[in-house]
Amino acid sequence: MSKAINFNDGMCQSYFSMQPSSVKGRWNVATERYRRYLYNKLFSVYKFTIPKYWPLNFFRFWLFYYGSTAVCYTRDHGWIMGPYGITEHDMYYQPFRITMYNHFLSRVADGVIGINSGIIHMMDDYFSLDDMVTDYAETLAMIDKSIKINLMNANVAVALPAKNAKDAADLKEAYEKATEGTPFVPINKDLLDSDTFKPIFKDLKSNYLVTDLLMDRVNVVNQFLTEIGISNTDYTKRAQMSREEVNRNDQEVRSLCSVILENIKESMERLNRISDLGLGVEFRFKETGGESNEQMPGRDKADAVRDI
Question: Are 253 and 231 within 8 A, CB to CB?
Fold first, then answer.
């Protein structure tokens, strides 16, 4: 078919038609390493209560990497959790009917939201924070690259003029031995005139940016922590801050994570009303959510759930 069937298909087609520009570091090992690092920071904000037979890594993978995960009752395995497809929306374009498939199921699981299934989602639009995480990961990867380049350029580089190839080879060999730590390097005295050794970078100290880049990396990580709701030290602020500035920062830390907590909590409460799963979520760190760090109904069913 030449035309997308629905909105999700259209998004998929547009994604794979995009080409990364030359300044973006999306497809490299450093970016992927930082994506994993930042996602683990995001995982640490929330503490879940889920059934013992639901693998935590599988649950968090679909919820955080893709923004949502479905829960549906099946005759074969009871309440299962995992990826899903939407087959019908209600009048307000909210998911109404879903399907789930797994090769361990005898048939495709059909679910009606609020009857025998539900969707646990992070954001109002059911999307994840992968765009934000990837953007921060790219920035951190580029800072790392700049640090390595600057460290390499910080090595003492000199120009060694030579009259012929033999003199050039002798100078190269002597310089290599000296930089390797050889304490005594004999050399032809005719090569040691006053104009022989000329540094290429005359002011190495002014070109050394590693210290600033390391602080930039800390500030980028702290900015990400502020976004996801983890308190941190803002090194860009002056030493003395007013109470109003402190409160404003606390509100900024809680803004996004509070929306995510509300969506996950509401999704789990709807599922608890039609099941005995006893799902729950709360902030892992008390300072993250303040007074909103409360337990959900249904957490007393210790035999059916586990605290992670």
Answer: yes
